[in-house]
Design goal:
Blueprint lengths: L2 H8 L13 H11 L5 E5 L15 H5 L5 E5 L11 E2 L2 E2 L8 H5 L2 E4 L2 E5 L18 H5 L3 H31 L1
Antiparallel strand pairs: 1-2, 3-4, 5-6
């Protein structure tokens, strides 16, 4: 059984209480697959100081914080704080439809490359559920070579949207 399925059966998962930042590409893919576009919201964050913890990712804030201090986030159930796509057996979205940020977990990364795994107290993966000799990557079936193209895609989408915003604001200023 895959680690994500094991995890869902025994503890809180990364799909609960986690802010998932969506690119416009994520929105397009999920909307096309589900026929629904009511799965995200533009969330206002009055205090963005926590973004300083993303020091390993110098462009993260400018890419994900939209005008007015909002971020495009996957909706969570108001009561349980579960991702709205979390079902009884885990994520109900097909792997190739899931948000890129979800596909990349538990890797840390930035625009320039893969950094490593989140292997500290923030790692939600149930390491205690691994069998002797198994690693998180073995159980997730997520080798670096598969994750890196997703990272590149995620940043290409975030960067493209950012550049469109910058170009649009320059046109307004000169127009």
């Amino acid at each position: 059984m895959q680690l994500c399925a094991r995890c869902h059966q025994i503890q809180k998962t990364c799909c609960q209480g986690t802010s998932i930042i969506l690119s416009q590409g994520d929105v397009r893919r999920i909307t096309q697959a589900t026929g629904n576009n009511d799965f995200y919201r533009l969330e206002y964050h009055p205090d963005l100081s926590y973004l300083a913890t993303y020091a390993y990712d110098p462009n993260w804030e400018k890419y994900v914080v939209l005008p007015g201090g909002r971020m495009r986030q996957l909706k969570m159930d108001e009561r349980s704080r579960d991702c709205i796509f979390l079902g009884n057996q885990g994520c109900v979205l097909a792997s190739d439809i899931r948000p890129l940020m979800c596909r990349l977990y538990p890797y840390t990364y930035n625009e320039f490359g893969m950094i490593g795994l989140v292997l500290n107290e923030d790692l939600i993966c149930p390491l205690h559920a691994l069998q002797a000799g198994e690693t998180v990557l073995d159980m997730l079936a997520l080798p670096h070579t598969q994750a890196d193209p997703w990272r590149k895609m995620y940043y290409a989408e975030l960067r493209s949207e950012y550049l469109e915003r910058v170009a649009g604001s320059q046109q307004v200023c000169t127009g």
